[in-house]
Design brief:
By secondary structure, the chain is α/β, with parallel strands linked by helices. Helix content is 40%, strand content 18%. This is Branched-chain amino acid ABC transporter substrate-binding protein. It comes from Alcaligenes endophyticus.
């Protein structure tokens, strides 16, 4: 295992996270959740926490791992890249060997070097940007979700074959995740001979996108793809409707949040998005879905099941190697498949899933979603 060091000041070891961790018994195995628990996309952190908590509760009820309980430690990075290393260093200093997260791609990219250098196993259930893993040679970094260069082509293929637009405008939020997937969609549309009217970034957090809406209306585009998160997509939908833009909208899993309804209002009806397949419909997952429901949780969100799968993968690997040893756990995950609610999963040498299925959903005004065409 790689040698640990503690780059933060000694005072940080007295943080609230360490005090919480210190309360755990020495025989517990701690798993950190790293994600946004403050800021505009806290719902994504909550989705991941629901998945991790449900998995941990079931694992502990069945006897734990190596006879030890799993204990969850929550770390907030607010989905900000600059907070990724801060959280990663806290986790290293608190000697936590396993992380489910980070949730947002930007924060994940900023944290992965630290985890890999320090021998911490990190499994992200939601960070889809290819640059999380591409060309890094990481040993301890994994995903339980597909990449944007899997999701983007799936979206583009759908647009080409099902929507058949005359002209598409492609927008993004200038961030790692949003711009990356928007670029993948644009490239595949152009390869298929679909005209891309324009490719443009907007500023995340702005409240007025009237300038880009005006350009959209004058471009003649009859379909819009947006790479980014739900707050911006909600505003684009509402402001486009207010300006009389008659175009369909589509986005990635980052726009699939019930809070978008309060932002977009009636304009959200019919929004298209790619999401992980609805694993709640698998008959093999009945018990897992019931475990979510028993705690008042929703198993059908974007990241609950992928977070459950990440937790189970870590737990199963610890059990299989017979030791709380992250180096051996990482070696096991690279070499073996794990049975999870998202299926039998396995990884390539850089920690990406060999296969992952994205489906296209229609979003509705009441906050529900349906598989497109059903």
């Amino acid at each position: 295992m790689k040698i640990r060091f503690t780059p933060l000041a000694a005072a940080l070891t007295f943080s609230s996270g360490l005090l919480f961790a210190g309360a755990a018994m020495a025989d517990d195995i701690r798993i950190a959740i790293a994600g946004p628990f403050t800021g505009p996309v806290t719902q994504y952190g909550d989705m991941v926490k629901q998945g991790v908590d449900t998995a941990v509760e079931q694992i502990n009820a069945a006897g734990g791992v190596l006879g030890k309980n799993l204990v969850v430690v929550t770390m907030d990075d607010a989905c900000e890249p600059k907070q990724g290393p801060v959280v990663a260093n806290r986790i290293v200093n608190e000697k936590i060997n396993y992380v489910v997260g980070h949730v947002c791609s930007g924060a994940t990219v900023a944290a992965t070097d630290i985890y890999d250098n320090e021998g911490v196993v990190m499994v992200t259930p939601s960070a889809t940007a290819p640059i999380v893993t591409d060309g890094k040679g990481y040993e301890t970094i994994f995903r339980t979700i597909g990449r944007d260069d899997q999701q983007g082509p799936a979206a583009a293929k759908f647009i080409v074959e099902q929507i058949k637009p005359a002209k598409v405008a492609v927008l993004h939020d200038k961030q790692s995740y949003g711009q990356g997937i928007a670029s993948a969609v644009r490239d595949d549309l152009q390869k298929a001979g679909i005209e891309v009217a324009f490719f443009e970034g907007i500023n995340a957090g702005d409240s007025d996108y009237s300038a880009v809406i005006t350009r959209l209306r004058s471009s003649g585009a009859d379909f819009v793809y947006f790479g980014g998160y739900h707050p911006e997509m909600g505003l684009l939908l509402r402001q486009a409707a207010e300006q009389g833009v008659n175009a369909g909208f589509m986005g990635p899993e980052g726009v699939g949040n019930p809070d978008i309804n309060a932002i977009a209002g009636k304009a959200v009806e019919g929004m298209l998005l790619t999401l992980p397949a609805d694993f709640t419909q698998n008959p093999d997952n009945v018990a897992v879905v019931e475990a979510f429901k028993a705690k008042g949780r929703d198993a059908g969100g974007a990241f609950q099941m992928t977070a459950y799968a990440a937790t189970k993968a870590i737990a199963d690997a610890i059990q299989a190697v017979g030791a709380d040893d992250p180096a051996k756990v990482a070696e096991y995950l690279h070499a073996n498949s794990v049975n999870t609610p998202i299926g039998e999963i396995n990884w390539n040498k850089q920690g990406d899933l060999n296969e992952f299925k994205f489906d296209v959903f229609s979003w509705h005004e009441d906050g529900s979603k349906t598989v497109y065409g059903k």
